[in-house]
Write a structure and sequence with these properties.
The structure is a homodimer. Chain A is an all-alpha fold. Chain A contains eleven helices and no strands. In chain A, helix 1 packs across helix 2, helix 4 runs parallel beside helix 8 and helix 6 runs antiparallel to helix 10. Chain A binds a DNA duplex through helix 3.
DNA sequence: AAAATTAATGAGCCTTACTCACCATGTCCA
DNA sequence: TGGACATGGTGAGTAAGGCTCATTAATTTT
């Protein structure tokens, strides 16, 4: 009823260091990221985060409304770091296959480089009720939309057939990547972002491409073969010329 | 230190109904399934399950080692129901496309019919550390393997091209389905298992099919390749003739 | 230097999973 | 029929961890 009554005490108290709000928040988030990464959400204890951040539990609740909000803030923070100069790289890449492959490879690389954070997002953050209100949701949507823009462009240009809902494409790419990286995220195996990106891009590209128009590298192979044929023919022509020269059919 | 001492009391106690172990376990699991479905894992309280099952908390711990084991048992129970006479239906279906489509449609239908249980599996069960030791993991693996068997057959027969790792196919199908059904599982929209199955099967099938075998204008590519081969042969023949002619090995 | 503001504290509250000493009911058998 | 035994069931109590808030301390403003 009348709880929370503090008793006056005069025990020696350790020196209290006061920091500007922004600094303290940054400290706590950094520590929280580490603890959440190591232990996962449920096993991480606010008490441990507080201790490692050099504050007391109550201090954390002064800056974050609860454990869940702390998790969300930590992940948002990380996510923004990751997305920095993402677009710039894409600008330098030409061709639908290459652009799709880049987006897929990039996503796989993020998982490969920061498995702990990705595990947090996949396993904990995304199942919280307010996920769709977080910045992570928004950022993620924005960023997968860039992949869909590539697909849309290819549909507009006639390279891809139309009629496949874009969201299904998104779901197959990112759902596929997620399931693909599971065992790695559990620490039960490795994967190569390069090889995996090739395999996934391959299925998606061929699943969407307009038949006969441009079967990616198959088309390229044919083109090169035709070039070879041309060169051989030219070579043959030259031989013919030589021959005709000898036989007096033309001026040499 | 010396806790857990029961005081003798003679207060009126409600009638205690004793049931055989199997019956009590079944009752508790049924109630637990309902409560977990309604509230999700973390918000479900053992106290509520106990009350609705007409027992006291301690009774539940007599039959289940903890909340997590209860969840696992509940989901295993449900999963086995679902998988009953699954194969029999597949037997009547012919053709790779139809068989794949059936497997995908079936999975989508399960999610559609029992969203609460699927949400439990996707959001809670699969992130627990001992997931890979559960029967659900094993059953799930077995059942997705049937999809891969269809793909493998098509590769063997030449309908599908080879070289794509089967597990990537699995991951894209089931990961795609999972992401596809998310918004529905959050209660934020509907989906049609039929239409979704068509779209997903479409991408997967065309992503795997050997170009030119079933894709109309792929024929075009083969024709051009054959033309190239012809020209190469003609060019080679001519060169050979010329060469042998020049070196006098044959009569020109 | 006093007042106001803001940072930080830490004892204690509250919920909830889980334990365990005991009690009740049914069955077997002399 | 009544004791022994097995098994179903209880509920008060503990532990752990998230969270609160009255109070205190450092810093800034006046």
């Amino acid at each position: 009823m009348s709880g929370y009554r503090a008793v006056p005490n005069s025990l020696p108290r350790r020196q209290i260091y006061r920091l500007p709000r922004a600094q303290r928040v940054a400290d706590i988030m950094l520590t929280a990221r580490a603890v959440f990464s190591e232990k996962g959400y449920t096993d991480a204890m606010i008490a441990e985060i507080a201790e490692r951040a050099g504050v007391v539990e109550g201090t954390i609740y002064r800056y974050f409304s609860g454990k869940r909000e702390l998790l969300i803030k930590v992940v948002e923070d990380w996510y923004e770091e990751i997305l920095t100069d993402y677009d710039r790289q894409l600008l330098g890449i030409r061709g639908t296959w290459n652009r799709l492959r880049f987006m897929i490879w990039r996503h796989l690389s993020v998982v490969h480089n920061d498995p702990a954070m990705c595990r947090l997002i996949f396993n904990e953050l995304r199942s919280v009720p307010e996920y769709r209100e977080t910045a992570v949701f928004e950022l993620n949507r924005e960023y997968t939309n860039r992949t869909l823009a590539i697909v849309q462009e290819a549909m507009d240009s006639g390279e891809f057939r139309v009629g496949i809902p874009l969201r299904v494409v998104r779901e197959m790419i990112y759902g596929g990547i997620e399931h693909h990286t599971w065992s790695f995220l559990r620490g039960e195996g490795e994967f190569s972002p390069e090889d995996s990106a090739d395999a996934i891009t391959d299925i998606i590209y061929r699943g969407l491409v307009r038949s006969g128009v441009a079967i990616d590298r198959g088309e390229e192979a044919i083109r090169r073969l035709e070039e070879v044929a041309d060169r051989l023919e030219r070579a043959a022509d030259m031989s013919e010329e030589e021959l005709s020269c000898k036989t007096g059919k033309s001026a040499c």
